[in-house]
Amino acid sequence: MSAFYDFTLPLLDGTPQAFSAYQGKVVLVVNVASKCGLTPQYGGLEALWQAHKDQGLVILGFPCNQFAGQEPGSDAEIAAFCEINYGVTFPLFGKIDVNGPNTNPLYGWLKAVHPEDIEWNFAKFLIGRDGAVTARFAPAVVPAELEAPIVKLL
C-alpha cells in the first residue's frame, strides 16, 4: 500500500503536484463541488487555511462530479469559480472520482483507513504530520468545527 507522500496528482492547471512536498505538514483532504448546498464551506476552508498555514496546515481540494452532477465545470471553470466567489488560495486539484470503479488511488488509500464510501461532497480527511489519517469528518461538519482537531495536530 502506498504512503500519503507517494502520491502525485495534477493541480487544476495540470501541473503535477508531488505530495512529498507536504511531508511534516498537517493536511486536510476534501472532495469539493461548486454547485452543492455545502459549497459555502469553501469560505470556511479558506479561513482555516489562512489562519493556520503558517503553522503547517495544508488544505487540498479535490473537485468531484459524482454527487448529483454538482461539479460539472472544466478545471478552468472550477478555478475561476473558487477564486471569484470564495477567494480560494489553497491547492485545488483536477477533477477525480472518489467512489466506484474509477476511484482515484488517493481516495482508495484514504478509504482503506476508513472503508466506507464517500457519502457526499465536502467529506474531510485529516492527516497528521506523520502522513497517517487521524480522522474522517462527514460532509455536514463545517470547517470551523475542525479548528480544534487541527490545532491539536499543529
What's this, in brief?
By secondary structure, this protein is of the alpha+beta class. The chain has a single domain (24-153), classed as Glutaredoxin (3-Layer(aba) Sandwich), CATH 3.40.30. The protein has four helices and six strands; from the N terminus they run E-E-E-H-E-H-H-E-E-H.
How would you sum up this structure, described in words?
There is one protein chain. This protein is α+β, with helices and mostly antiparallel strands and 154 residues long. It has a single domain, classed as Glutaredoxin, CATH 3.40.30. It is 26% helix and 19% strand. It contains 4 helices and 6 strands. The strands form 2 sheets. A 4-stranded mixed sheet has the order 4-3-5-6, covered by helices on one side. A hairpin with a 5-residue loop joins strand 5 and strand 6 (133-137). The radius of gyration is 14 Å and the shape is globular. The relative contact order is 0.22. The mean pLDDT is 96.
Considering the chains and any ligands shown, give keywords for the structure.
154 residues; alpha+beta; Glutaredoxin; four-stranded mixed β-sheet; two-stranded antiparallel ribbon; 4 helices; globular
